[in-house]
Amino acid sequence: MPIVPPTVDSFFRFEAANDEAANDLLSPPAGRRIGGAPAIELEPLHQIVYVSSSRANWSEAELGRLVTRARIHNGAHGVSGMLLYVGGNFVQALEGPPSIIAPLIHRIRADRRHWHVQRIVDRKVQARDFADWSLGFRHCRPAELAAAGAVDIRRDETIAKALVGRDGLAIGLLRRFCG
């Protein structure tokens, strides 16, 4: 059977399909497996949840680029997790092999785009809470958290203050708004 080279038309159909997928990065369908987290874990798992404050408000385009890069990195390294951006703050869960999570959190702490990185959860786990996502993502307003009865960061002043010492609330918040 002869090899048929792709046509220009087929190339543009391929590009359009990829553009649609790229535009959907901020809100992938529920249950869609994005990353390369292994089904059977060969190493112990470590889970970290942190909160941080952004030095500037991020645009949707900036958040999209951040999420895209993180999904590629996480998928290639067996990391799963969720990221919530609310009111200029990040809440993120990362889970995977300790040999990957430790340098990743070090890199995150050194990133100058945000500050006041506080660990909320730092533990070994038997199973992933966010196994279906190399990085799930949600951008929401503080009022959405309050309306859902999760955390009223207007009342609690900061999301970090609301979550410190409340591991279950932090994980539940990420599951509820990102999962």
TrEMBL record:
It comes from the Bacteria. Residues 45-136 form the BLUF domain. GO terms for molecular function: blue light photoreceptor activity; FAD binding. This is BLUF domain-containing protein. SMART domains: BLUF.
